[in-house]
Amino acid sequence: MDQTKEQDEDYGYNLFPDRKKSKYKKGSIGESLFTFNHKCQVMLQFAIETSPYAKLLLGAMKNSGCTVYKDRHFSCEDCDGTVSGGFDATTSQIVLCQNNIHQQAHMNRVVTHELIHAFDHCHAHVDWFNNFKHLACSEIRAANLSGDCSFTNELSRFNFGLKQHHQECVRGRALRSILAVRKVSKEEAEKVVDEVFDSCFNDHTPFGRIPHSKKDAKFAYRDFENRDRYFANL
Ligand SMILES: [Zn+2]
User: Fold this and answer.
1) Mean pLDDT of successive 10-residue stretches along the chain, which has 234 residues
2) Residues 14 and 80 in one domain
3) Does residue 228 sit within a domain?
4) Is the Cα torsion angle 68, 70, 72, 75 positive or negative in sign?
5) Which of 41, 63, 100, 174 is 20 to 30 A from 165, comparing alpha carbons?
6) Distance of alpha carbon 18 from alpha carbon 80, whole angstroms
7) Is the same domain home to 67 and 101?
8) Which of 114, 154, 188, 190 is catalytic?
């Protein structure tokens, strides 16, 4: 990466304007933001308590010594454009875009997607800023395992298709995520995604399978709990 490029690169922070300014300078629309913020907090709490995807990831992170605390590691903020969330590796915080997330199912998916990044961050010494392959791999895993490409989500986007389609969906979403936060060409991003695709697509940790539905995720969570119980007896 050359010098000029490095100066221009903002790692996607332009999408999260609240990350740059003081939290308390909300201005005259403060009241409506408070309502958005409150709703976001309530949906977040519900996701943490009821989503089997989120529960499994939170449990796995706790086991890896990276316990996630709601107040410390999640932040409901206003974001630009249509982004739903992000993982800020410099603060280990998950950003939830309170102005763009309006439904519980959407919140559950965003929390899961970002928790996968947080899990990778905790687990794998990810070099988000310098190693492009690490970023690509985590985006592939997040798209594959979060339900972003599950059948009902895809149906609602009018993308009818079969199994092959899941892979295409994962590839496409990983590409879009990378292009949103890095100043690289589409070709460059495609090259890296394709290089790491097979190994990262087949890495299902900590789920042990691709959870294609909430039911799958429930089974994965049950297995995870049993695994834990087994180790506790050793
Ligand atoms: Zn992502």
Assistant:
1) 53 81 51 79 97 96 93 94 91 95 95 96 84 94 92 56 78 94 93 96 93 88 78 51
2) yes
3) no
4) positive
5) 100
6) 9
7) yes
8) 114
Residue 3 belongs to a domain = no
Number of domains forming the structure of the chain: 2
The boundaries of the domain holding residue 86 are 10-123
CA of 224 to the centre of ligand 1 (A): 23
153 and 113 in one domain? no
pTM: 0.84
Phi-psi region of 27 (alpha: psi -120 to 50; beta: other; left: phi over 0): left
Catalytic annotation on 31? no
CATH number at residue 81: 3.30.2010
Q: How far is the CA of 139 from the centre of ligand 1 (A)?
A: 5
Looking at the structure, do residues 48 and 112 belong to the same domain, yes or no?
Answer: yes
Measure 177 CA to ligand 1 centroid, in angstroms: 6
- Candidates 137, 134, 164; CA nearest to 149 is 164
Looking at residue 24, its pLDDT comes to: 46
Same domain (yes/no): 52, 117:
yes
